[in-house]
Amino acid sequence: MASQTTTPKYGPETTGLELVHQFPDEVKGRIFLITGPSHGGIGGETATSIAAGQPAVLILLGRSKARAQPVLDAIASASPSTLIKFIEVDLSLLSSVRAAAATILSDPEIPHIDVVINNAAIMASPFQRTAEGFEMQFASGHLGHFVLTNSLMPKILAGTAPVRIVNVSSVGNRICTVRWADPNWTEEGAYDPWDAYGQTKTANVLFTVALNKRLAAKGYPADKIKAYALHPGSIATNLQVHVVQAGAESMAAAIEKTFHGEPNPIPGVKTLQQGCATTLRAALDPGLTEQEGVWLVDAEISTDPTWIESWSLDEGDAERLWKLSEELVGERFEL
């Protein structure tokens, strides 16, 4: 007798709009915050997909309103009733992040936040230190989101269940763990753009693990609020600008570092719609908490080591990262 196979409910071809239409009650009338909403990127596609479900408010945080304007126009066209709040912020500068958070906290038109999508990132950039002394990828991809999310926690905890915090990571977490002794690459000649990217993507997952542990310790059940991290897939966006400039050798080095010499399992390039689907499953599906795990690939919970390293899920390292992050930003967060 031939064995039967079950077709997965979701997969690499699932689209963001499919998820929005599948979970209309988790979109309509709710308040979403998304970082990195530029046109032509995953964040912009995530925002316009959500707009199709008529949310009450979309809070978009980005460096340039001009780059996001096509997204703002698309949202207004798809859902004229949605209140759009664009807030300029440089996630690599904590002073800018804190100012943006203060603006949101003081805005009476944002009584709470139901879903936070920490999407913004930089990939494999040349070495650069921020004005506050942090390595650029780590600052913009992790520390900025760490401060933003924690600063907004009063309004996040006031959100309507299921409240979600979604941290867009990458299979790049497999490149390396956090450089605990020198996360800002102060050692002369040590900087490697892909290792810096891997550190940041690992930090995204560890931040997720630490958030969930702290929320549970404070008595918040997972069906009230939960954080997830994810690999969106390989999508051609402006995120790869530094990789394109560096040439084919840079991408070959990335694949070697990520998969440790094993064959590249990435099936191909996704469309933007396919690329935002995993984010939206994490953000919208109220039944997701019935499954164990915090990591998603192709819109499904996964523990496959092909896509997630054990160091990224380590609870001890998650606590270590939280304390390191507090030390670096000079602020303690107790939720």
Number of helices: 12
Radius of gyration: 19 Å
- Which range best describes the helical content: under 10%, 10-25%, 25-40%, 40-55%, 55-70% or over 70%? 40-55%
CATH homologous superfamily?
NAD(P)-binding Rossmann-like Domain
Flag low-confidence runs.
1-7
Distance between the termini: 55 Å
- Overall tally of domains: 1
Q: What are the secondary-structure elements, in order, as H or E?
A: HEHEHEHEHHEHEEHHEHHEEH
Structural account:
The N and C termini lie far apart (55 Å). The chain is an alpha/beta fold. It is globular and about 50 Å long. Strand 1, helix 2 and strand 2 (57-62) form a beta-alpha-beta unit. 40% of the residues lie in helices and 13% in strands. The model is unreliable at 1-7 (pLDDT under 50).
Features:
single chain; 335 residues; alpha/beta; Rossmann fold; two-stranded parallel ribbon; 40% helix; NAD(P)-binding protein; SDR_fam; oxidoreductase; NAD(P)-bd_dom_sf; oxidoreductase activity
